[in-house]
Amino acid sequence: MTRSAMGLWHRRRISCGLGLVGVGFLAWWVLTNDPAAVDLTNRFAGPSMINPLGTDELGRDLLSRVVAGGLITVGAATVALVATAVIGTAVGTFAAWRGGSVGSTLVLVTDSLVAIPEVVVALVAVSILGTNLMTLLIAVIIAGWLPFARLSFEIAGRLLNSDYAMAAQVTGVGPIRFIGLTLLPNAARPLMAHAFLRFPGKLLLLSGLSFLGLGPQPPTAEWGAMLARGIDELERHPLVPLVPGAAIVITGYVVASVGRALEQPTAPTNRRAMRRRRRLRVHRSRHRWLGGHR
Questions:
Q1: How many CA atoms does the CB half-sphere of 214 hold within 13 Å?
Q2: Can you give the pTM of this predicted structure?
Q3: pLDDT attached to residue 233
Q4: CATH code of the domain in which 135 resides
């Protein structure tokens, strides 16, 4: 596969991934079943026209609860990811711009703290702050900003040595304008790719803490909590735990595929550029053939 075709494939994968995530959020508006409606006479019912994925232990529609839980789980993971990306990027970029002892201190702190697993930091924060969605978000943000700070510090350090960055500094551009208009636009693509690739980890961390009972409490629909309540029914009613588990895996895979596509270098995909590349290859092969027969 040529680079242009690969670039087109990666862009299509980004569009498909974002489209699937958008469809998941729009599905909330077309569902007719109340995710919190209890019907004890319809416990663990199989799939039907009214309940496409069946019902849970309280007779609640499983599809509606998965969609409602997705709004909480995916929304919380997105908020946590954006917050960690903003905080980490701001700290890392500022440290790279200042340099000296500030940069070396940041490298020392991040290298020391990044060795501590995020789940351990989140568990300590939740045990101190309490168990609810807000404290869960705070715990994930506290645990997750260090990788963004380290990455943005390295990217900004490389960009500061580029010709256009040095030219901007010579012209006397202020620090805010220099960082906002020179450094961050050129670092946006790798930072965005890193953010998409970090999303599955945030999703699993939030779902895992909810699985342990440290997230939103019943009757709130959340994927980790749904998985925890349905794990005991795996043999008799497999859809109850498998549906939220599959939602976590599929969502993480789709978002990670967008991040992998953003990591790939861009390539021209229009026909004129492809024809120029083809003519250049033909010219080079003809030149080598004529050179070999002289």
A1: 22
A2: 0.77
A3: 84
A4: 1.10.3720.10
